[in-house]
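Z., the sequence and structure:
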Amino acid sequence: MTLAVGDFAEIADEWQGIPVTYYVEKGREADGKRSMGKTPRMVEFLSAKYGYAYPYPKYAQVCVDDFIFGGMENTSTTLLTDRCLLDERAAIDNMRTESLVLHELAHQWFGDLVVIKHWSHAWIKEGMASYAEVFWTEEEYGKDDAAYYLLNEARTYITEDSSRYRRPIVTNVYREAIELYDRHLYEKGACVYHMIRAILGDELFDKAIHTFVQDNAHKTVETVDLLRAIDKATGYNLMFLFDQYVFRGGHPDYKVAYSWDGDSNLAKLTVTQKQAKKDSDSKELFDLKLPVAFGYISQDSNDTKLKTFPLRIHQPEQSFFFPLENKPDFVSFDVGNNFLKTVTLQYPVTELKNQLKYDPDPISRIYAAAALAKKGGLEAIKALSESLTNDSFWGVRVEVAKKLGKIKLNQATDALQAGLKDQDARVRRAVIDALSNFKTNASYEIIANCLNQGDYSYYTEAAAARSLGGMVSGNLKAKQPEAIALLKTILEQRAGWNEVVRSGAIAGLSKMKTSADAVDMILKYTKPGIPQALRLTSIRCLGAISTGQTPEKLGEILEQLEAIAGESFFLTQVAVVGALGQMQTSQAISILNELVAQTPDGRVRRRAEEAVTKVQKNLGSDKAVKELRQELDQLKQANQELTSRLAKLEAKNNA
């Protein structure tokens, strides 16, 4: 049950005679319709997808302030944060709201109609609601967008797995049920549903889901009930998949090496499971059947043909040999990229360039871009530059921009500038982030001009503000006063939707680790009365800027964080924990321990305990290490310039 009380504007809609209603703050009716107006089509879509018509006599969505979640489904009524309401400008590159609306609606089936029997099985509903976001993306924007959306779901889970903890999706080991509501539950759960779909195929997957929902409507379920429904509907026993991805933690980390023997016309592929040691037992190994394809490019039409083979990969290292009539132009591992994994490609440059340009799967092109960037050099920059300008899918162009930003040659800067003209704001944003890695006068001026001129996208402006602050160190330290003045102007003049742009300016200031002026500006925006979104960012950024400050300034920061830690609002406490976890002083540990003892929220307590561990590790960094790091940055910059000149000379000699 939920009860929302307020002076709301009511927006009436309907689906097949069922009232669909949106409640928003008065004056924001246009934002409400813009943000939730696709709901009737979503109800139609999910009714068909789940094989069960929307099961309740009405559906309402209420947007409220000070909400600690993005959304919370309740039977026939969903509460949403009012921060999801989009103005016209925010709508151009923000799919978060659409995904949120779809996610909470999906819970009307998975969560409310079909209810989990125990918290440990919550992935059934949260994984499906997250995967419904992928479904809808495919329906509304196409398969490439859906594939990229799923890749980012996987990355979110992998980050938690590598940086926080690894656990089985289904586990009874926890202190409080809310601890289970993490990236393993949502994003990894979504990836498991996708793997089920990949194994069964679309038709049988839909049949299995229909069976599961119809057989368990108005009942409670656990994971075995999903397995039973799949078996009943399709005859498939997927226990092998659940054993590896659901009932134990982790995922395979593959390294794939390719070579061609022209004398024997043999392609050799060596696949290593990096997460498993060669002398380890089988507990760390995954046993999966993955497709590999050899791509051939038609010179007349630029069409691509794939010759596909299924491979069973179940050992720490395996080599496969393929007799082929002709040398392939490129190699595609896990065709379709349906299985949750990480993969490092060790292919020759020519094959990687061909894959980046011709592989029909955008995720394979992204993997090729990553492998090319690691090789570096002007040949890689040229191929990535062409992809940044010409690839048909915005997601690939975003990833290529990120990779160009990691190649420490000045020529990469020239390649990136073309991306600033991209029609897609998400690409322009990625280009600005990448350019900020090159701490040169030219890159600084480009980003400063972008910020001065503005961009129709809030997020692109925020990226420019955030990036600028990180550039004014080392060779560009003299520009710090200029950057602070510009960011101050942004803070004074560009308040707006969800404080995205001003939050970017605060994040930029937080990168000026030794600036007392930057600290003072951030402190100003941590005070009560500041818009919540901007205040929370400012609180977190106090931790980021603290590591280079004088003892006096550090004391001011700690005093403010200790005062704010006494506030009871969940998001404020999380922001304080985030700030303290970045610090390098034992006083931060004292404040965190007090928070652990006082907070009633298990999520805050867990995060605070993890932050204590981080601070303890941070304390190993001393002044000498920082000085060495600064010297190393200067040497890297000098080396980059020399390497770039050398590469240019070599290119002229080879021409």
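Residues 252-375 form a domain with the Immunoglobulin-like fold (CATH 2.60.40.1840). The first strand starts at residue 8 and ends at 15.

Let me know what you think.
H.
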